[in-house]
Design goal:
The complex is a heterodimer of chains A (482) and B (484). Chain A is α/β, with parallel strands linked by helices. Chain A has one domain: Alpha-Beta Complex (Amidase signature (AS) enzymes), CATH 3.90.1300.10. Chain A contains 16 helices and eleven strands. Chain A is globular. Chain A starts with a helix and ends in an 11-residue tail after the last helix. Chain B has three domains: 5-294, no CATH class; 303-414, no CATH class; 423-479, Arc Repressor Mutant, subunit A. Chain B is α+β, with helices and mostly antiparallel strands. In chain B, 40% of the residues are buried. Chain B has a nine-stranded mixed β-sheet. In chain B, strand 6 (102-111) and strand 7 form a beta hairpin. The longest helix of chain B has 20 residues, at 224-243. In chain B, helix 2 (167-184) packs antiparallel against helix 3, helix 14 (438-445) runs antiparallel to helix 15 (450-462) and helix 15 (450-462) crosses helix 16. The chains are: A alpha/beta (482), B alpha+beta (484). The A-B interface holds A 78-79, 85, 87, 92, 95, 97-99, 101, 196-201, 203-205, 231-235, 311-312, 314-315, 318-321, 323-325, 335, 339, 359, 362-364, 367, 371 and B 41, 44-53, 80, 82, 84, 86, 89-92, 146, 273, 275-277, 280-283.
Chain lengths: 482, 484
């Protein structure tokens, strides 16, 4: 499949047309998605109409944007005007937003073509996409395995060539972990780099939208289009957005790479450890200098996250009550019963678990011991990173301690939560993180390398990743789908 | 022997701010639009939306805080207050909790002429909720509808310290606070429409005690009169309960205005746990000193200061000054009239009696729309002075001016109300009246002084009130025989 950059070049040269490309993607989805199940909703007509619009611009000799005619998959947690946005939840099964998320406004302005909305763990809560209220998505590398989550649909779509790129959201690893499981590039930008307006909130202080692509340049192009201050999001930061694709060629000579010693845990897949060590050696070979760093609060990050994220979720999800939109249970004899039944029937077990955890963490008498303390841990996590970044430019570690597991394999929620042990601290600190393929297990499952950067220094992450990608063969491998 | 109790009251006021747009989105705030016509995804609490602070609302609140002598915090933060109710689209309200905009202020109120400072605990910002419309009554309704037009309208909550000691003082505090908001132009002060709402906490303690008693929250008081009556009732109820050896239950009670009593709504055991936490969708708000200083320069002369100036500059009695300054529009009206007709006490009399008979003194909008502009009132008063009309006629003319919007001259001329001051013309009438009222003349001769007044009245009657009473008086004295 052509990369995002290649698509633009082929359109300009006349080698192919946007309509041909979009049609071929739609055809491929029709053939393969019944197995992968990446998409919840397809937007065939509008996709073709947008492809035609690009074609018209092309014929009129107008300059094309870097994403003109590029077919994309959008995680179903991002609001799309007139296209149902379910968050993979029964409670929003028929919700059609009357507005576009800021990222959609920007992608549309850049000429991108949305093919459809992708499956996910309900309300982005999960690490396997098994928590979708509708169906699980399969890992294109092994259909018996999960694609990771919560943005599993987006990652699988890109990996299976069912979209040239995709958007996901990352609250504790939901872009990077599925990117690692599916062998794609995934970027979680700095908190505040990309507008959250129109991203259905899970945990407001942690959520960020970010791109998936088959290669680093594609991810850079997508990030370029969506990054930047948005007056509609007060937590988006008003600092200039650098030219990400231009930064790719800057090389990594002299780049200081920190290896956090805490990012090796018991029960970790040895093949992951080996591949990541090899990747670090490869970075050294490309001119990077490595040194060990310590992030001592890492051990508490997971616990802090599972107080902060559910607390915010319990608040953010309070609006789904059957009154205004979405699912309303029938037969309630009064308001309280209507609320109770709607939420009991509308939310899945993991969402309910987190709402209960969060409600408890915020309740009077427990607030200080739980939410308050978790916030103090968060400050320490952030400080650990700050201190490390006084000495190094990026950190390198595994994206996840394991590779894609089998559907139904992790029944214990705590086992599932451990999938994000290396990605969660990055969200707590608000830092940018990137996952890219760094090898495969013997059984052929992708392994992800995570690079963590300084706030708003996505450029360095992307250029380091690009240098590594160009020197290694991993990104060229594609899953063998029947 | 019954214990002497002291009443302790703290007041919470919610004031809707007169910003054009809502607190966290761009929707208009105007009252009375058709249901849900003034809404957007943000104030409907749609999935994915985010709030953006309305800077103007913050400025209104800062100006209010300055007028109330508050300390304005250099940084403040919004917090989410959670409870489920269908009029609240997100099922949480964006409010302020641990880090309010302003704290520690005061407001001076005078009851029976003795000024007292009532402390202000805090002033913070929040968003209003929508409105439920029930089919019939709440109890019998088969369906309820939600109107989110009010959802997200900026509210300012002003919480007093428990410094208020009587129902009377409570209403004085509320009147003074409302006057300040009206002067600042930040709130229209309409209690019936709910743009100025008040809840009260009231407790009793034995006089001299330093500890507070168990407090009861009173809600649903939508006029000054209701506040006064509700608090008087509640103080009596608590005193009676305490005297009977009962314990006061900490609870919320509703004032039933029609029935004249408070009714228990919910006790503390059922109190909400609001699960406040800092609003993660908004960054902490920095309030720079420069901003505050700049806003300080925009403060108008406030009611108390203006009242004092009215006494010193115009020589008005304190009572007049207080009434005239209760709203900015009324005080402006008064001063405009005095500029045209510089007899302050006379203008005050006319404004307070004639004008306020027609207009409620604190309805800013009504005063601004008053059909008699200050200049016209001044002209009317000048017509009395120059003898064109009598004071009695002037009151009729005033009423006609109010109804028609015409100026005094037009009405006086058209209706032939010009006062007869020509001694020659009046002399004939006087002669005629004396001839027709011989018994009164006889009484006068016998020394009955009231006869003079009667005869003046007869002359006025004959001239349909147009005679100049001073000249009539003089003519009568000249023509009447000397009393024996």
């Amino acid at each position: 499949m052509p990369t995002i950059a290649e698509l633009g070049a082929r359109y300009r040269s006349g080698e192919t047309t946007p309509t041909q490309v979009v049609e071929s993607y739609l055809q491929r989805i029709e053939t393969l998605d019944p197995q992968v199940r990446a998409y919840l909703t397809l937007t065939r007509e509008s996709a073709l109409a947008r492809a035609e619009a690009t074609e018209k611009r092309l014929k009129a000799g107008k300059p094309l944007g870097p994403l003109d005619g590029v077919p994309l998959a959008i995680k179903d947690v991002i609001c799309t005007k007139g296209v149902r946005t379910t968050c993979s939840s029964k409670i929003l099964e028929n919700f059609v937003p009357p507005y576009d998320a800021t990222v959609m406004v920007r992608l549309n302005a850049a000429g991108a073509v949305m093919l459809g909305k992708t499956n996910m763990d309900e309300f982005a809560m999960g690490s396997s996409t098994e928590n979708s209220a509708f169906f699980p998505t399969r890992n294109p590398w092994d259909l018996a395995r999960v694609p990771g989550g919560s943005s599993g649909g987006s990652a699988a779509a890109v990996a299976a060539g069912l979209a040239a790129g995709a958007l996901g959201s990352d609250t504790g690893g939901s872009i990077r972990q599925p990117a690692a499981f599916c062998g794609t590039v995934g970027v979680k930008p700095t908190y505040g780099r990309v507008s959250r307006y129109g991203l259905v909130a899970f945990a407001s202080s942690l959520d960020q939208i970010g791109p998936f692509a088959a290669d680093v340049r594609g991810a850079a192009l997508l990030l370029q289009a969506i990054a930047g201050h948005d007056p509609l999001d007060s937590t988006s930061t008003d600092i200039p957005v650098p030219d990400y694709p231009a930064a790719l060629g800057q090389g990594i000579q002299g780049l200081r790479v920190g290896i956090p010693s805490e990012y090796v845990i018991e029960g970790m897949d040895p093949e992951v450890g080996k591949a990541v060590s090899a990747a670090i050696e490869a970075l050294k070979g490309l001119g990077a200098k490595t040194e060990k760093v310590s992030l001592p609060t890492t051990n508490y990050a997971l616990a802090a996250y599972y107080l902060i994220a559910p607390a915010e979720a319990s608040s953010n999800l309070a609006r789904y009550d059957g009154v205004k939109y979405g699912y309303r249970a029938a037969g309630g004899k009064d308001l309280i019963q209507m609320y109770g039944r709607t939420r009991a029937e509308g939310f899945g077990p993991e969402v309910k678990r987190r709402i209960m955890l969060g409600t408890y963490a915020l309740s009077a008498g427990y607030y200080e011991a739980y939410y308050g303390k978790a916030q103090r841990v968060r400050t320490l996590v952030r400080r650990d990173f700050q201190q490390a970044f006084e000495r190094v430019d990026v950190l390198a570690c595994p994206t996840a301690p394991n590779v894609a597991f089998k559907l139904g394999e992790k029944e214990d929620p705590l086992q599932m939560y451990l999938c994000d042990v290396f990605t969660i601290p990055v969200n707590l600190a608000g830092l940018p993180g990137l996952s890219l393929p760094c090898g495969f297990t013997q059984s052929g499952l992708p392994i992800g390398l995570q690079l963590i950067g300084k706030p708003f220094d996505e450029s360095t992450l992307l250029s380091a990743a690009y240098a590594y990608e160009q020197a290694t063969p991993w990104h060229a491998r594609a899953p063998a789908l029947p | 022997m019954s214990t002497d109790y002291e009443t302790v009251i703290g007041l919470e006021v919610h004031a809707q701010l007169l910003t054009r747009s809502k607190m966290f989105c761009g929707c208009p705030t105007a009252f009375g639009g058709s249901p849900n016509s003034q809404t957007c995804p943000v104030c409907q609490g749609m999935p994915g939306v985010l709030p953006v602070i309305n800077r103007r609302a913050i400025e209104f609140a800062i100006r209010t805080a300055l007028a109330l002598h508050c300390t304005i915090n250099a940084g403040c933060r919004f917090a989410r207050k959670h409870y489920y109710y269908p009029d609240m689209p997100k099922n949480y309200q964006i409010s302020q909790y641990e880090e309010p905009l302003a704290v520690e202020g005061w407001l001076e109120v005078a009851v029976d002429g003795a000024p007292r400072r009532i402390g202000i605990e805090r002033l913070h910002m929040e968003e209003d909720v929508g409105k439920l419309i029930h089919e019939g009554t709440l109890e019998t309704a088969r369906a309820s509808l939600v109107d989110f037009n009010r959802s997200g309208v900026p509210l300012m909550e002003i919480v007093s310290k428990p410094d208020v000691r009587s129902a009377e003082e409570a209403t004085a505090y509320l009147r003074a606070l409302r006057a300040i908001l009206l002067y600042l132009g930040v709130c229209d002060g309409n209690m019936e429409e709910g743009s100025f709402r008040c809840d009260a906490n009231i407790s009793l303690r034995p006089r001299g005690s330093k500890e507070y008693g168990v407090k009861v929250e009173i809600k649903n008081m939508n006029s000054f009169k209701n506040v006064q009556h509700a608090l008087e009732f509640e103080a009596r109820r608590q005193a009676k309960a305490l005297a009977a050896g009962e314990r006061i239950v900490q609870e919320t009670r509703l004032w039933e205005a029609d029935k004249g009593y408070t009714l228990s709504m919910r006790s503390k055991e059922y109190a909400h746990d609001y699960r406040y936490f800092p609003e993660p969708d908004l960054v902490p708000l920095k309030v720079e000193q420069r901003w505050v200083d700049q806003l300080r320069t925009t403060l108008p002369e406030l009611p108390v200061v203006r009242q004092q100036r009215f006494v010193s500059q115009y020589g008005l009695p304190a009572y007049d000054a207080e009434l005239l300054t209760q709203s900015r529009a009324l005080a402006d009206y008064y001063e405009a009239a005095v500029r045209e007709y510089p007899k302050p006490k006379i203008v005050s009399n006319w404004v307070l009696s004639e004008l306020l008979r027609e207009l409620p003194g604190d309805d800013e909008a009504a005063i601004t729309r008053c059909p008699i502009p200050p200049k016209n009132l001044a002209r009317l008063l000048a017509l009395i002075d120059d003898g064109t009309i009598s004071g009695k006629i002037a009151k009729d003319v005033f009423e006609k001016m109010y109804r028609s919007g015409e100026d005094a001259e037009t009405i006086v001329r058209r209706e032939g109300l010009v006062q007869v001051a020509d001694a020659g013309a009046l002399a004939a009438v006087v002669e005629q009246v004396l001839a027709a009222n011989a018994p009164a003349v006889e009484d006068w001769k016998k020394g009955k002084k009231q006869s003079l007044g009667f005869l003046v009245g007869q002359v006025m009657k004959t001239t349909q009130g147009k005679a100049n009473p001073a000249i009539v008086n003089q003519l009568l004295l000249e023509q009447l025989p000397k009393p024996s």
